[in-house]
Design a protein that fits this description.
Elements lengths: L3 E5 L3 H10 L5 E6 L5 H6 L3 E4 L5 H7 L2 E4 L9 H13 L5 E7 L10 E2 L10 H14 L6 E6 L1 E3 L6 H6 L4 E3 L7 E3 H13 L6 E4 L7 H12 L6 E3 L7 H6 L5 E2 L2 H5 L10 H13 L1
Parallel strand pairs: 1-2, 1-4, 2-3, 4-5, 5-7, 6-13, 7-11, 8-10, 9-12
């Protein structure tokens, strides 16, 4: 039987998974809300599907796997708001369901370490929405749910190089601040490994091995490009949008032991240094 993944909110990370599955004979359906995104969906090896729309139910009835990367809002999870009953009806027939969450559900730990057993205590509005969405998905009986808590995502087209080149990159300094990160290709391989070795009910942190201060990442990117390292800006003096400032409200180091021990994942990019070096080389080529 042909495996069929329906991917809700078929964006950056889901497209990276789709490029893997489409070479393995899978059928992948990726939802979008606008025609403008359809070209990117097709480029990833998936067939576009409008969501919400009248054809979603039929696609869902044929799906063996579901991935949702649609972000929640103050009213809950948009996918479940439209399709909870349909997904619940399909639950016994689905082989795997993945929900892309965020490490923001752990809240602030003052730079300390967290793992998948750490209690969820988000302090930001978006983190609280994610925690609630995880609970919504987990409440569907018999659903073979896997939750993936992603750290800061970077990869082709998503890195600090453009801002470093145009002079808008800033090295914002907040004492003790560290972030975990993950390359999009490592997200894709973690998802593929979970699909191959399902363990319903499990949550996975997806990040690299080196939680690091954000200013170090910007400095390394500048050095790779042979450009001046942007000057330091104290956090208290930095002009930022409320969303950008919220990222600095939490500091933690995220452990990724489970994806290695349980799924056998060997990270392609163990730190931001390998990841950015590869991106810079690809841009030169």
């Amino acid at each position: 039987m042909t495996k069929h993944l329906i991917s809700f909110g078929h964006g950056y990370s889901a497209q990276a998974l789709s490029r893997i599955l489409s070479t393995q004979g899978w059928t992948v359906t990726g939802t979008s809300r606008t025609e403008e995104r359809d070209a990117a969906i097709r480029a990833s090896g998936a067939t576009p599907l409008r969501f919400p729309g009248p054809d979603v139910g039929h696609a869902l009835s044929r799906a063996t796997h579901i991935l949702s990367s649609v972000g929640p809002n103050e009213t809950g999870d948009p996918v479940l708001a439209e399709l909870r009953d349909a997904i619940a009806l399909r639950a016994p027939h689905l082989e795997w369901v993945g929900y892309l969450s965020t490490t923001g559900v752990y809240g602030d730990h003052g730079g300390g370490w967290v793992d998948e057993t750490t209690p969820l205590a988000p302090s930001t509005r978006r983190g609280k929405w994610r925690k609630a969405a995880e609970k919504e998905w987990a409440a569907i009986p018999d659903l073979p749910l896997h939750i993936f808590r992603l750290a800061g995502i970077y990869g082709p087209g998503r890195g600090p190089f453009a801002k470093v080149r145009n002079g808008t990159a800033r090295r914002i300094i907040k004492q003790g601040q560290v972030f975990s990160r993950t390359h999009v290709e490592d997200i894709a391989q973690v998802l593929a490994a979970s699909i191959a070795r399902p363990n319903p009910g499990c949550a996975y942190n997806v990040c690299d091995d080196d939680p690091a201060p954000p200013q170090d990442v910007i400095a390394f990117a500048a050095e790779l490009l042979g450009l001046p390292v942007p000057p330091e800006v104290p956090f208290e003096e930095a002009e930022m949008t409320p969303m950008a400032r919220s990222f600095y409200a939490e500091s933690k180091r995220v452990r990724n032991t489970r994806i290695k021990d349980e799924l056998g994942v060997v990270l392609k990019y163990t730190t931001y240094r390998e990841g950015l070096t590869a991106l810079a080389a690809a841009e030169r080529d």
